Amino acid sequence: MSLGKLLDRFPAVRGLLLDCFLGLHSACYSYASRLAVRESSGQHPKHRITAYHSWFTKRIGGSEHVLDVGCGKGELAGAMARYARRVTAVDIDAAKIAGAERNPFKKDNVRFVQADATRWACEEPVDVIVLSNVLEHIDQRVSFLRQLVIATHWNSGPRFLIRVPLLSRDWISVFKKERGVSWKLDPTHETEYYVSEFLEELASAGLECKSLALHFGELFCEAVPLCSMPQGHNCLELFDGRPHDER
Predict the structure, then answer these.
(1) Closest by alpha carbon to 209, among 140, 162, 242?
(2) DSSP 3-state assignment of 193?
(3) Cα 159 to chain center, whole Å?
(4) What span, in angstroms and rounded, lies between the C-alpha atoms of 44 and 49?
(5) Residue 213, Cα to own-chain centre: how many angstroms?
(6) What is the pLDDT of residues 146-166, one digit of tens each?
(7) What CATH number belongs to 46-229?
(8) Separation of alpha carbons 125 and 222, rounded Å
(9) Helix (H, G, I), strand (E, B) or coil at 217
(10) Residues 73-82: pLDDT tens digits?
C-alpha cells in the first residue's frame, strides 16, 4: 500500500503532516534568506537578481527631491541618488540608519534620518515619496498614506512610488493562509496583498494607480491623487484570484 493511500485512512494525521510540511516550507524560506545575506557579504541577493532598483530610478528626474520612507540600509536610496537632485531617507530603526551611513553606495546628496515616519514630516519640499516594502509593515495604512499626502510639503503635487509583496505570488502562500499556517514572507508584515485589495486601499487614501507592474511576486505602482488621471483611464486589468467573500 502506498503512503498516500495509507494516509487517506487517517485524514487527521494527513492534515497534520501537510501543515508540518507547509510550516517547514516557510521556515526554510526564512533561513535561506538570512543565509543568503551572509553569503553575499551582507547584501541580500534579491537586489541583484530582481534588479528592482531600476523601476524606481527610471521614474525619478534629475531635479527632483525624493523622500525614501523606510529606507532600511540605504541601498535603494543610494541608487536613486544617482538620478535625483537630493534624497532624504528615513527609517525608524537606528541600527539600520547607522548601517546606511556606512553603506559604500551612499552618495553626497543623500541625507539619512532616524525617525518614525508616521509622526515625522520632511521640512523641505518633496517631489516624490518612495515606499519600497514599507506599507505591509504598517497597521493603519490608509491613515498613513493620507497623513503623508497632507503633511508633506510638495513641490508640485503628490506622487508615490510604491512596492509591496503579493499574497497571490504563488498558490502555496494562499493555501497556507487558508490552513492557518505561517504564510507571510516576514513575520513583521501586517498584510500581503491581492492586487485588487491594494488598489482599494489606495482609493480609500485618495490615491489611484497611474502605472502598475508585477515583478518577482511583488507589485510596483506609481500613485497620484484621485481625479488627476484622464477620464476612463485603466492602468491595468488583472485577475488576481482574490476570493469574492474577501472583497
Answers:
(1) 162
(2) strand
(3) 16
(4) 9
(5) 13
(6) 999 988 889 888 899 999 999
(7) 3.40.50.150
(8) 19
(9) coil
(10) 899 999 999 9
Taking a C-beta distance cutoff of 8 angstroms, is the pair 65, 85 a contact? Answer: yes
Identify the residue whose cell numbers are 515583478: 215
Higher pLDDT pick, 45 / 9: 45
Q: Are 42 and 72 in contact (CB under 8 A)?
A: no
Q: Which residues pair with 65 in a beta bridge?
A: 86
User: Does the model's pTM come out above 0.85?
Assistant: yes
Question: What is the per-residue pLDDT across 115-154, written as a single tens digit (0 to 9) for each?
Answer: 988 888 888 999 999 999 999 999 999 999 999 998 888 9
| Domains of the chain by residue range | 9-39, 46-229
The radius of gyration computed from the CA coordinates of the chain, to the nearest angstrom, equals 20
Measured CA distances, 194 to 43, 131, 140, 186, 240 (Å) = 28, 18, 17, 16, 6
Strand-pair partners of 87: 66, 110
Sign of CA dihedral 121, 123, 129, 133: negative
Q: Regarding beta strands 65-69 and 86-91, do their DSSP bridges make them parallel or antiparallel, or are they unpaired?
A: parallel
Say how far apart CA 153 and CA 68 lie, in whole Å: 14
Residue 123 belongs to what H/E stretch? none
**Distance in angstroms (rounded) separating the CA atoms of residues 56 and 89:** 14
